[in-house]
Amino acid sequence: MRTPLAFLFLFMAVQIARSEDLSVAAAADLTYCIPVIDAAFEQANPGADVKVSFGSSGNFFQQIQNGAPFDVFLSADIQYPQKLAAAGLVETPVKYAEGRIVLWTMNDSLDLTKGLVALRDPAVKHIAVANPDHAPYGRAAKAALTHEGLWEELTPKFVYGENIAQTAQFVQTGNAEAGFVAMSLVAAPALAHKGHFYEIPEVDYPPIDQAAALTKAGSAKPLAQAYVAFLKSAAARKILGQYGFRLPK
Question: What does pTM read for this prediction?
Fold first, then answer.
């Protein structure tokens, strides 16, 4: 039979376990990178249990506006957490990286050294693009194509993904002959040796500023505060760099 003191300790253990749970909404370009960062964070914080949901930054923006119970928002577009901060829904966002966009194909015969004009090749019947209405990489792709005067011309070939991970999947499965994806995906071990890519010059599209923000619920959790701080640590920066992100000074 358990004593009242035993029940007290059990109750405290449950409360501690709950306080160690962390819910993170992460942009899809972090699909491969964040699990590595989370493993390092959990090792540095024994008992921490980071649960991550991946999706488009725009969709998470809407969900947090509607009260989704996330502790941390990792957005691929700093404007989303800035708008949430202005509405009092998250703390001031912290930039921790900058995304890079590439044109990726699994077709060895497609010559990407020519740049984006390679998409005029008749063999390219479908081009995967993240939906620019809510995906930062989709807006970056549109800006780069517009810069080259190709957006309107190539629009009939576009196949839209809900987020950058789905866009990469279209290319990987052959549902699109080429597509605009995040460097952080093609640099991941799972995709690093598949297909080939052309990195789009950063001057051709607006910066893809990655930012972290604590939600109202997260701001009350020391673990969530530690998580955002960890993203700026040398350990996290090393991992982000390995996955192709540009790092802020």
Answer: 0.86
